[in-house]
Amino acid sequence: DMSEEQRQFDEKISADQKVEPQDWMPEAYRKTLVRQISQHAHSEIIGMLPEGNWITRAPSLKRKSILLAKVQDEGGHGLYLYSAAETLGVSRDQLVDALHAGKAKYSSIFNYPTPTWADIGVIGWLVDGAAIMNQIPLCRCTYGPYARAMIRICKEESFHQRQGFDALLAMMAGSDEQRRMVQEAVNRWWWPVLMMFGPSDADSVNSAQTMKWGIKRISNDDLRQRFVDAAVEQGKVLGVTFPDPDLKWNEARGHHDYGTINWDEFWSVLAGDGPCNAERLGTRVKAHEDGAWVRDAALAYANKDRTRRAA
Length: 311
Ligand code: 3HC
Known about the structure:
single chain; 311 residues; Ring-1,2-phenylacetyl-CoA epoxidase subunit PaaA; Ferritin-like; Aromatic_CoA_ox/epox
C-alpha cells in the first residue's frame, strides 16, 4: 500500500499546491526537476554566447546597451535557475561539470550561428518569444522554487522579445539590403525555433509523467501551435514571410497548419552535431578554466575572512 508521504504528495499535486524543498517528494519527481531546471539554466548561460559576439559590433550605442542588458539578464536567469536546482540537493559545480563533459543538454537553438545583426533581432523576436511561450506555463509548476524563478524571469523576457522586434522594425523601415538581411535571418531561424518546443507529443518521453506531476502544463505540440499562431500575425506587422509553403490558416481548426519539422536535424543537434555545438561548449569550458583563479581567490578570501571573524 501507498506510504503516508506518497499519499500526502499526491494530494498536494491534485490540489495544485506547491511542493517546497523541505517537503517529501518521490525520487523520480526530484530527478526530473533537476534534469529540466539544470538544462534550463545551461540554456540561459549558453544562450549568452550567440548574442554576446555582437555586443562589440552593435550598430549604435543604444542597441549595444540594450544587448548588453539582455545578455546580462540571461546570465542572471542562469544563476537563478542553478539556485532553484540546488534546492533539490545538487551542487552548481556538479551541474556545470556535467554540461562541460557533454553529459547535460541545453536548448538546441543556441547551436546555430549569428552571421548578421538581423540574427540578433530575430533571436529577440522569435527565440525569446518561444521561450516566453514555454516559460509562462512554468510559472504554475508545482515545484515552488522553479515556479517563483519563472515569474521573475518572465518579466524580463518580455523586454527581450520587444527589443528584438523593435530592432527588426527599424531595419524593415531601412534599405532593401536591410530588409533582405532580416528576411534571410527569419529564413534561417524559423525551423530551429519550432524545434525549441521539443519533439512531437508522440515522441516526448517525459511529457506524460511531467504533466501528471504538474511540471509541464501544456504539451510540446500545443505550445508550438500557440507560438506559430502568434508569430504569423507578428510577421505580418513586420512585413516578413516564413520559409514554409505549408504555413496557412486553417479555419476549421482555428489554427495555422504548418509543414513537417526536420526531426533528423533536431536529434542530430541534440547529439552534438549542430553547426556550433563544439564552439559553444568549447567557449564555455575555456571561460570556466580561465575563471578558476577568480573562484579560488574568492573562496580563499571568504575562508580567511570567516576565520578572522571567528577569531
Ligand atoms: N533542446 C535540447 N533538448 C531538448 C529540446 C531542445 N529544444 N527539446 C527537448 N529536448 C530533450 C529533452 O530534454 C529530453 O531529453 P532528456 O530526457 O535527456 O532531458 C528529450 O529531448 C525528449 O523531450 P521531452 O519533450 O520528453 O522533454 P521535456 O518534457 O523535458 O520537454 C522542454 C522539453 C519543453 C524543453 C522542457 O524541458 C522545458 O520546458 N524546459 C524548460 C524550458 C527550457 O529549457 N527552455 C529553453 C529555452 S531557451 C531559454 O530559456 C533562454 C531564453 O531566455 C532565450
